[in-house]
Amino acid sequence: MSSRQTVIKVGPGDTTLRARLLGTRLREKREAAGLKLVAAASLNKRRPATLSRWETGERMPHPSELFYALEVYGVRGPERDELMRIAEEAHDQPESPGVVSTAVADYDWLERRAQTVEVFADVALPGLLQTADYAREVLKAWDPMASRERSERTLAARMARQERLGGEEALEVYAVLGEGALRAVVGGPEAMRAQLRHLLDCAALPTVELRVVPFAAGAHAGFVGSFTILRFREDRDLAHVITRAGDIYLEDPEPFAQALRRIKRAALRQRESVAMIAALTKAMT
What we know:
- With 285 residues, the chain is α/β, with parallel strands linked by helices.
- The chain folds into two domains: 16-92, lambda repressor-like DNA-binding domains (434 Repressor (Amino-terminal Domain), Orthogonal Bundle), CATH 1.10.260.40; 102-283, Endonuclease, Chain A (2-Layer Sandwich), CATH 3.30.870.
- The protein is 51% helix and 14% strand.
- The protein has helices at residues 16-32, 37-44, 48-56, 63-72, 77-92, 102-113, 132-142, 148-161, 179-183, 189-203, 254-266, 270-283, and strands spanning 7-10, 116-121, 172-178, 208-213, 227-231, 238-243, 246-250.
- A seven-stranded mixed beta sheet has the order 1-7-6-5-2-3-4, with helices on both faces.
- A hairpin with a 2-residue loop joins strand 6 and strand 7.
- Helix 10 runs antiparallel to helix 12 (270-283).
- It starts with 6 loop residues before the first strand and ends with a helix.
C-alpha cells in the first residue's frame, strides 16, 4: 500500500469515522472562508487546539458548536443541514449495552450514503445478502456474550440495510463470494437452504452482481481476507475491513480495488455462479 494511506480505526465507544469526515469538511470550509486556524478559533470563541481536534477528528463538536462554526464560515442552506445532520446523528447515538455499537451505527450511516458497494467475502456472506436466521447465527458466533437485546438490535439494523437493495435509488452491489462461504452450513440445513435461495433472489435484482470463486480456482488475491469498498457520488471512496480490534477504514481503496479485479478473474461469471448456488441449494441436506 501507499505510504500516504490514511487509516481510520473505529472501535467500541468511538465516533472516529463520522468525526473524521466531519472534521475534513470543517477544515475545507474554514480554508474556503480564507481563515487561518488561529483567526477561526478567535471567531469561534474556542482555543486553536480545540479547532484542530475538530478538524482532525479527535473530537466531535457539539451540534451547537458546529452550527456556530458554520455561521462563521458562511455555510448555510442544504450544505449546512447535511453537516448538522452528521453531528446530530453522532451525538444522538446511545451508548448503553442495549443498542448497537458505534462501529455498527457508523457503518450503517456510511452505507446509506454510498452509491455502490463492492465486497469480497470468503467466510461469512455479506450482511447485505444475509437472511435473518443466517445473520443471527453469525452474530452469535462473533460475540456469544452479547445480550439478547443488543444482538436483536444489531440484527434489526442489518436487516434494515437491505431496504436499499430495491427502490428508485437502489444501492449497486458487486459481491464476489468464496465457495467456502456457500458451503458452511450456518444455522442448519433448512436455514442454509433458505439463505442460498435468498442469494438467488438477490442475484436476480438488476442492481446486484454476484459471482463465486470456486475451490478449483486455487490460490487467488482474496486469500488475505474479506473487505468492502464503498463508493460515493460526492465524497471520497473508502475501503472497509472488519477485525477483532475494531473496524478499519482506509481512505485510498485502490489497493483493494486492484485485488478485487484480480479476484474476479478467478471467479465464475454470474450465470455460472447462479447455477452453482442453485445446485448447492438442491444438494443441501
